[in-house]
What does this fold into?
Amino acid sequence: MDVASTVRVTIGRESFEARLQRDLAPLSCARLEALMPHEGQLVHARWSGESCWSPLSHAWPAGLELPPENATAYPLPGQVLLYAGDLSEPELLIAYGQVRFASKAGALAGNPVMAIGDRLDCLADLGRQVLWSGVVGLRIERIGAGSNIEHGYERDIPGNQQEAR
It folds into this structure.
């Protein structure tokens, strides 16, 4: 896995390596990287099938929406979507099985920002644990160099008004 695109996703006590999907959603990945290290909570997604979601409103710039970038409502197991549109609050959705991304307002489509490529059986076990036992902690952090921030591209990140270095 390319170190420049690798992040660690920790759910409860389990850690996974994930690849940022900059090729599919460059603006969304840059916005997610701007939040790292990110700590939040992971809750089972009652509207979306075999998935968990993490609300981002506590860390998200007020009023910031992201345009669709290869947006999907049907992520594969291990795929992580970022939604920041007008139908629901900003959130991450982590698929561990069959998913149809939705909210109480209806169908949603999120931008694919990360892919967890291994230990999907463990991810599915964690998803079922969250379903039956409740909320767990979530942490997302960089592994190694190569982020947009480290390369001085923070001016290109939606919602970031900083000057380039």
Notes: The chain has two helices and ten strands. The beta strands are 6-11, 14-20, 38-44, 49-55, 79-83, 91-99, 102-103, 106-107, 111-116, 136-142. The CA atoms of residues 70 and 151 lie 24 Å apart.
